[in-house]
């Protein structure tokens, strides 16, 4: 019998729970949406992160992606056995890698190709290819190639199509027989670029015998990939490989962490780990605040009910559990909605990743452990936010709870104490007194609305940074129209040959020298860029648009590279040249360049030629052309055998904008949606609670003669003051988050976001939050207009 009575009592509480949810459905939905946003961003970001990591790990393992790489000029095949004898080396794969110019049907401008050899008799053991469609190369075929998938898709090339390549000065037709993916080119980026340009840069694989004959490499190789034994010392392996390959023009061995595709992938994963935790934290903090505010007022209105429940025998635990279930029901509803939303976001992110990365499959699936963690964190945050209100309510003695709360203690505001109150209308003074009376609630409300402003600022900051980088890199640094690179360093007379092409208006030589830059025990493998001291077609410009000229004797170095080496201005660094006679140069660091991409070292062209004790030589040139003769210039450049690559600034810019703009558009839309949810959740809940708290007061004012407009101004004036005060705070919050994010991303080697926030970003954030606040005000104003004066005045306070 006792059990039956207890169960009936608990069922009565459950019915009360449903009535409370029905009465507070608007506020409950607002809180659930905020929780859903936090859960959705957490589920999406963590699933995307885990999927990227697991997809990459599986592709690397299945393809046996090498751990050490090295290039050289020409190494006899007999050295392979010497490399295999290095302690820690498990397997060595030698190959031929050469850059070529491509002439692609229906593409006017030149394209750059990378030809990589594969054994004629068997597939490569390392860096194995994944055949997407078509077939493998026939043994002995000298005109068949396998093409990377992004390159084939961008140029609408299919199995059986042919493209022309300038191979060792000779034009040769290559037929595509298969489309493949490679672990080396998951992120397929052209040397010198910062985003993929698959239309103008393709990677192709060709039979080793055919490629060796085409480049006079019979019995030799110029590239090597190495797999290590478990626990091997990679630094020792790199040192031994350099010793063996240096006599053959070795260009310096390097580990997987410096392989360009892997390095960019690793940077993206690190960025996702950081940014994927910021938004969920903000949403769950706001949800905790909303639970605290809603339950504080709900429990205050239900003081007599709580006292009655205690009189009927309900314990403090029973009552606390009842309100905890109120919190958990809303949290669970938000979590379910967030899980569904997280899966939808995952679909968008999968499309974004597929546009950039080349994996056999990117499968972002629901990991229930992540969902469970997200729900647990959301429930914990909600309970922490509600716990104080619940604890205060249940510990009040029944006799005290039966009495109404004591009336509010209103005091003159600071403005009134200064004697300025007479300048304010009565309505304004009432608003300010109410805000002053509830200082903590007011401050937290201001902070919560400010967070929604901050989210928009942070999301838009990325777009501002990209716009700034686009303008800096392609309109201020790269002032040329075309950059060409030669197969080998040539006499600077190449500039005269290029200048003689009809349509070429101006030519400036440059030289890129592969080298190890060493300071103390630290070194990095980079290309030293040598430019004329009077260069005009490219600029040495930092992120603040300050410029330098190539120094006549010394180096200008990327700031991030100097930090990695531990060098500073005035220090002598060693430049171990990895071509020609391979001298070691000692040069002072004259300036640090706070640039936005890559690890760069600059000096003057005359200085480099003098230090290398060579006649004036160049490995490339910058061209400015007449746009009316663009097609003729492109055709002439395609036919020059000495050129190893041609890069057109216009198409590099277009690729950058296409890649970034598509992804940023999706991210911006998501950020705006979440910011609106926060603003609506905070402002709407605040206004509804204020209405429930002050309904008797407002009804009294209506009865004694105040108009609807005046009582609306009293109620919504509080909302307006909170929103206006939140705007500058939110700008500061957004500025701080953006600064921290840019500081973190400033350490990336491939690409670094400058800290740039445009005025339009603040304007957008303010506009969105004000719009959300106005919508919330209109919803509450409707309820205020339908206020039942008689019912409200009959209610007992």
UniProtKB/TrEMBL annotation:
Bilayer topology annotation: Multi-pass membrane protein
User: From which domain of life does this come?
Assistant: Bacteria
Every ABC3 transporter permease C-terminal domain range: 278-398, 672-783
Question: For this UniProt entry, what is the primary localization, expressed as one broad class?
Answer: membrane
Cite the entry's keywords alphabetically: Cell membrane, Membrane, Transmembrane, Transmembrane helix
Q: Could you tell me where this protein is found in the cell?
A: Cell membrane
Annotated Gene Ontology cellular component terms: plasma membrane protein complex
Q: What InterPro entries does the record point to?
A: ABC3_permease_C (IPR003838), Lipoprotein-release_system (IPR051447)
Q: Which GO terms describe its biological process?
A: lipoprotein localization to outer membrane
Q: Where do transmembrane segments lie in this chain? A: 21-43, 277-295, 326-350, 370-394, 443-462, 669-691, 712-741, 761-780
Q: Which family does it belong to?
A: Belongs to the ABC-4 integral membrane protein family. LolC/E subfamily.
Q: What is this protein called?
A: FtsX-like permease family protein
Protein's organism: Aeoliella straminimaris
């Amino acid at each position: 019998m006792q059990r039956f009575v207890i169960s009936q009592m608990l069922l009565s509480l459950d019915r009360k729970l449903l009535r409370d949810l029905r009465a507070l459905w608007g506020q409950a939905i607002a809180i659930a949406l905020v929780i859903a946003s936090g859960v959705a961003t957490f589920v999406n970001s963590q699933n995307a992160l885990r999927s990227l990591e697991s997809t990459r790990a599986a592709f690397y393992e299945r393809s046996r992606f090498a751990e050490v790489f090295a290039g050289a000029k020409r190494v006899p095949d007999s050295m392979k056995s010497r490399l295999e004898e290095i302690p820690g080396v498990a397997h060595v794969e030698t190959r031929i890698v050469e850059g070529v110019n491509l002439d692609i049907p229906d593409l006017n401008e030149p394209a750059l190709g990378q030809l990589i050899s594969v054994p004629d008799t068997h597939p490569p053991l390392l860096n194995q290819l994944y055949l997407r469609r078509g077939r493998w190369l026939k043994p002995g075929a000298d005109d068949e190639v396998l093409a990377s998938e992004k390159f084939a898709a961008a140029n609408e090339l299919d199995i059986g199509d042919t493209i022309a390549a300038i191979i060792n000065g000779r034009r040769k037709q290559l037929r595509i027989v298969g489309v493949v993916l490679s672990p080396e080119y998951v992120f397929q980026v052209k040397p010198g670029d910062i985003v993929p340009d698959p239309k103008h840069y393709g990677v192709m694989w060709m039979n080793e015998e055919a490629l060796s004959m085409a480049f006079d490499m019979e019995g030799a190789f110029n590239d090597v990939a190495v797999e290590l034994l478990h626990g091997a010392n990679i630094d020792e392996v790199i040192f031994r490989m350099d010793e063996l390959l240096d006599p053959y023009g070795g260009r310096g061995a390097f580990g997987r962490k410096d392989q360009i595709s892997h390095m960019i992938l690793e940077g993206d994963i690190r960025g996702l780990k950081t940014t994927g935790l910021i938004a969920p934290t903000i949403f769950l903090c706001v949800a905790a605040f909303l639970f605290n505010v809603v339950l504080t007022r709900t429990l205050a209105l239900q003081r007599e009910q709580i006292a009655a429940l205690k009189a009927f025998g309900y314990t403090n635990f029973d009552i606390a559990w009842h309100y905890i279930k109120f919190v958990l029901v809303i949290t669970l509803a938000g979590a379910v909605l967030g899980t569904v939303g997280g899966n939808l976001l995952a679909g968008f992110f999968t499309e974004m990743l597929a546009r950039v990365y080349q994996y056999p499959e990117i499968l972002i699936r629901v990991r229930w452990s992540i969902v469970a963690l997200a729900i647990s964190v959301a429930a914990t945050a909600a309970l922490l936010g509600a716990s104080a209100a619940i604890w205060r309510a249940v510990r009040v003695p029944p006799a005290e709870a039966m009495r109404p709360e004591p009336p509010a203690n209103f005091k003159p505001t600071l403005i009134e104490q200064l004697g300025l109150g007479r300048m304010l209308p009565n309505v304004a003074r009432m608003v300010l007194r109410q805000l002053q009376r509830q200082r903590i609630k007011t401050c937290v409300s201001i902070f919560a609305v400010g967070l929604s402003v901050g989210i928009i600022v942070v999301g838009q900051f990325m777009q501002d940074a990209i716009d700034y980088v686009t303008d800096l890199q392609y309109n201020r640094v790269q002032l040329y129209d075309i950059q060409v690179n030669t197969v080998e360093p040539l006499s600077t007379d190449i500039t005269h040959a290029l200048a003689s092409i009809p349509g070429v208006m101006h030519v400036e030589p440059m030289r890129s020298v592969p080298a190890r830059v060493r300071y103390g025990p630290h070194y990095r493998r980079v290309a030293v860029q040598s430019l004329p001291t009077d260069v005009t077609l490219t600029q040495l410009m930092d992120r603040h648009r300050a410029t330098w000229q190539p120094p006549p004797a010394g180096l200008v170095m990327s700031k991030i590279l100097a930090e990695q080496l531990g060098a500073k201005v005035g220090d002598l660094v060693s430049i171990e040249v990895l071509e020609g006679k391979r001298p070691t140069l000692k040069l002072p660091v004259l300036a640090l360049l706070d640039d936005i991409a890559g690890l760069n070292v600059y000096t003057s062209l005359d200085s480099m030629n003098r230090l290398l004790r060579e006649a004036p030589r160049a490995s490339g040139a910058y061209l400015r052309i007449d746009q009316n003769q663009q097609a003729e210039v492109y055709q002439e450049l395609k036919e020059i055998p000495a050129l190893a690559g041609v890069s057109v600034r216009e198409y590099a810019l277009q690729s950058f904008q296409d890649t970034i703009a598509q992804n940023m558009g999706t991210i911006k839309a998501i950020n705006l949606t979440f910011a609106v949810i926060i603003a609506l959740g905070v402002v709407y809940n605040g206004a509804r609670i204020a209405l429930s708290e002050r309904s008797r007061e407002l009804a009294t004012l209506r009865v004694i003669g105040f108009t609807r407009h005046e009582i609306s101004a009293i109620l919504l004036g509080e909302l307006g003051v909170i929103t206006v005060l939140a705007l500058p705070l939110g700008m500061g919050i957004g500025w701080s988050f953006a600064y921290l994010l840019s500081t973190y991303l400033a350490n990336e080697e491939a690409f670094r976001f400058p800290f740039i926030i445009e005025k339009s970003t603040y304007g957008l954030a303010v506009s969105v939050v004000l719009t959300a606040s106005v919508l919330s005000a209109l919803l509450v104003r409707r309820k205020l207009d339908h206020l039942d004066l008689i019912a409200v005045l009959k209610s007992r306070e």
